[in-house]
Design brief:
Number of helices: 18
Shape: globular
CATH superfamily of the largest domain: Alkaline Phosphatase, subunit A
CATH class of the largest domain: Alpha Beta
Mean pLDDT: 92
CATH architecture of the largest domain: 3-Layer(aba) Sandwich
Largest sheet: 10 strands, mixed
Low-confidence stretches: 1-24
Bound molecules: 2-acetamido-2-deoxy-beta-D-glucopyranose, zinc ion
Length: 656
């Protein structure tokens, strides 16, 4: 068997076909299947890796090739060495080893026998392709072997059509969840909704496919990378193609929509999330690492951009609002920060006002940059901020003083303030705002459907307030508003549950008779019971009716369902019987009197997981038609970039 090569980065990438079935985790981005699309003028790095497996089924007993070469040809043109093509110096040869499990070999995993690979590698950094069209990148290695990738620089219109883009991401949000949220938040008469969700009023609906580069299920990191960079990536990777080196920061990077927009137009950027700010969806706009868990460095990247590499000028977003104070406050208070710095101070030194509660947020001036960190970890959920407020004491203060965070804003407060600041500060330059309802996903993970749907309804309420605000200020026509998700969860509603009947049965099989399907599902009790004078039609009138939704996920740990709202705070469906065993069973304290549901995930899972489904894309504003139909997640990046007029090809062409 031949020595295998890998060109990661925006590169070639992939397998030599004979071994593809067993080696995809070693060669995530693969040359023979390798295709990458680029925005003209977008910065990217190239990482070349030549692999020599030392043991395992692919061992070849030869040292790795150190004399590999790499060429690029435009169209049918002559292939030029990479150094000549880009007018750059050759890169230094790097070497390392890594081990991996061949393909999905779970037997090898159990036996703990990974295969070892010797690597020789070079990286070329901060390159750009300007001329639209096809390019062929060829890695020649191993005395005559070669592997090719096709790169396509998309031919996009360069005229700017939108002044602003607001990208709402409902993390983990599917059409099924939107349908369920509509059912509990809006009233029907004779099968017709009397009010509509704001998303439902968007003129254009599309569908995006979320697959990552080397697995068909994504996490929020690689899906954020696809949405923000136009390049698919791997699980846990942010703004890079994952390489096999030890350093999680040296992976080949691709420039994000926020970075390109800011670099080329001077436009302003805002980032809002209900998650801890270092979490993947906010992080993906500025971080470049294959390890999303490098939280401290992620926070540093918001402020300082890429560290240790020459890249792009970045002077921080105008707005950064969310949770995750532990990456900001001093290590003396227990903060876990990059290089032990206090990031409240680092941001303040660069001219940010620092906001730590809702009162301060609402009264903050709109002409200054703002960092708003409102809790330790993820922010409190809509249900706990609005209905079961006594649970707010489960959140910790953003100051690090271990008191409760009782005065937290919601997504709507944060998003509207972000728009005020961005509008005022960006002037004619326009802005890009990403606003994430993060806990749709987080609550689906813990099977807390009520909280997840509350977050979804809050997202919709936020979109409604945003549309109204932009309409009032005359900015609606110049702003593209997108609402989408990064992946789904296998959630749906199959009927209703008589919770009183269910609780009254002792027998597990009898409890199941509490479930009403088809005609026995009846109508939603979330609108027809409770305080009928309650006028805010965006949310349920009653979160705790007798007849609730019969809902659930298709992949679970062992758990119980009693189908009533968890009034004491977010749920913990599964627990270890023995601490540290990683053997999760039904949490004996969760969902009393419920139906026992056998898990189907590996027993080390205490939560549900993401699923394959396509996710919806709602669009309104300039370029809205680009978002109709069925397409790939990366197309959202290209359509946003085109709408902002960010392609720098043809006229702008700078060499090659
Ligand atoms: C390969 O070598 C490494 C290091 O010596 C060892 O840990 C590993 O078990 C070996 N794998 C196989 C498949 O033999
Ligand atoms: C390539 O050729 C050199 C010189 O003939 C030889 O030493 C080396 O082992 C060859 N490598 C492979 C992988 O065949
Ligand atoms: C940057 O380089 C310094 C010094 O080598 C190192 O300590 C730090 O971890 C690096 N940071 C990143 C984000 O790569
Ligand atoms: C940060 O603080 C920890 C604990 O005091 C220490 O071990 C570590 O070396 C410090 N890191 C830096 C970069 O100063
Ligand atoms: C909110 O923040 C302001 C400004 O930092 C502070 O003065 C005030 O005490 C805070 N309020 C609460 C309830 O923590
Ligand atoms: C929160 O408050 C409730 C009642 O007000 C109390 O029972 C509970 O122990 C408190 N929890 C925490 C974490 O302080
Ligand atoms: C914008 O406001 C106008 C005037 O109040 C109204 O007629 C129109 O429907 C609003 N547009 C949207 C999209 O809400
Ligand atoms: C019912 O809702 C209305 C309107 O929101 C409110 O004024 C009233 O106090 C509520 N009544 C009860 C019993 O909660
Ligand atoms: C269902 O479980 C929740 C959370 O454990 C609990 O608060 C509630 O009382 C239970 N409902 C019934 C009907 O037993
Ligand atoms: Zn998730």
């Amino acid at each position: 068997m031949a020595i295998l090569s890998k060109v990661a980065g925006v590169a070639v990438a992939a397998f030599v076909s004979a071994v593809s079935a067993q080696s995809f985790q070693r060669l995530g981005t693969c040359p023979t299947l390798g295709m990458a699309d680029f925005l003209a003028g977008q910065y990217f790095d190239i990482r070349l890796e030549v692999h020599a497996p030392k043991n395992g089924s692919e061992a070849i007993g030869l040292p790795p090739d150190e004399a590999f070469t790499f060429t690029i040809a435009k169209g049918d043109g002559v292939a030029k060495p990479v150094t000549e093509f880009f007018g750059i110096e050759d890169a230094k040869l790097e070497d390392w080893t890594f081990s991996y499990f061949e393909g999905l070999d779970f037997f090898a995993r159990d036996a703990k026998t990974p295969s070892l690979v010797d690597v020789r590698s070079k990286a070329y950094r901060r390159l750009a392709l300007h001329e639209p069209g096809e390019y062929t990148a060829t890695l020649n290695y191993n005395n005559g072997s070669s592997t090719k990738a096709t790169w396509l620089v998309r031919d996009l219109a360069e005229e700017r059509k939108a002044k602003n883009i607001i990208l709402f991401i409902g993390d983990g949000m599917t059409t099924n969840m939107i349908t369920a949220a509509r059912l509990i938040g809006h009233k029907t008469i004779n099968g017709k909704y009397q009010t509509r969700m704001q998303m439902d009023k968007f003129p254009v609906l599309g569908h995006q496919m979320t697959h990552s580069i080397d697995s068909f299920i994504t996490d929020s990191a690689n899906s954020a990378s696809a949405l923000y960079t136009g390049h698919k990536s791997s699980v846990n990777a942010l703004g890079v193609y994952a390489d096999s080196s030890k350093d999680p920061f040296d992976d080949p990077k691709v420039e994000t929509i926020a970075e390109i927009f800011h670099r080329l137009t001077g436009g302003h950027v805002g980032i809002v999330s209900t998650a801890f700010l270092a979490d993947a969806t906010p992080a993906g706009l500025t971080a470049h690492t294959r390890a999303r868990s490098e939280y401290g460095a992620v926070v540093d990247s918001f402020l300082n951009g890429i560290t240790n590499y020459t890249w792009t000028e970045w002077d921080g977003p105008d707005v950064l609002f969310g949770g995750g104070a532990e990456q900001f406050y001093s290590p003396e208070l227990g903060g876990i920060t990059y290089q032990n710095k206090t990031y409240y101070d680092e941001f303040a030194k660069k001219g940010y006002q620092v906001l730590q509660n809702r009162t301060a947020l609402l009264s903050a001036p709109s002409n200054e940059k703002a960092l708003g960190v409102f809790t330790y970890s993820n922010m409190a959920k809509w249900l706990d901020r609005n209905v079961y407020r006594e649970n707010l004491n489960q959140s910790l203060s953003p100051t690090g003083d271990k008191t409760a965070a009782l005065d937290q804003p919601g997504l709507k407060d944060m998003t509207l303030k972000a728009i005020d600041i961005l509008s005022e500060r960006s002037g004619d330059k326009g802005f890009f705002l990403m606003s994430e309802a993060a806990s749709i996903d987080k609550m689906m993970h813990v099977l807390d459907y009520d909280r997840a749907l509350g977050e979804l309804l809050e997202l919709d309420d936020t979109i409604k307030a945003t549309v109204n605000k932009l309409n009032e200020t005359g900015c609606l026509k110049e702003t593209l508003i997108l609402v989408t998700a990064d992946h789904g969860h296998g959630f749906d509603v199959m009927g209703s549950v008589d919770t009183k009947y269910l609780a009254a049965q002792d027998d597990q099989r009898k409890k199941r008779n509490a479930i009403g399907t088809y005609q026995n599902s009846g109508l939603s009790q979330y609108q027809n019971t409770g305080n009928l004078t309650y006028v805010d039609s965006n949310f349920p009138r009653n979160w705790d009716p007798r007849y609730t939704l019969f809902s659930g996920l298709t992949a679970n740990p062992d758990h119980r369902e009693n189908y009533t709202v968890h009034k004491d705070g977010p749920r913990e469906p599964a627990a270890e019987l023995e601490e540290g065993s990683k053997d999760f069973h039904t949490n004996p304290e969760d969902a009393e009197n419920g139906i026992e549901i056998n898990g189907n995930l590996p027993v080390s899972n205490d939560q549900g997981v993401h699923s394959l489904t396509d996710v919806p894309v709602f669009a309104m504003g300039p370029c809205q038609d680009k978002f109709s139909g069925v397409y790939n997640s990366i197309d959202i990046f290209f359509s946003m970039a085109e709408c902002f007029g960010l392609a720098r090809g043809k006229g702008h062409s700078a060499g090659n």
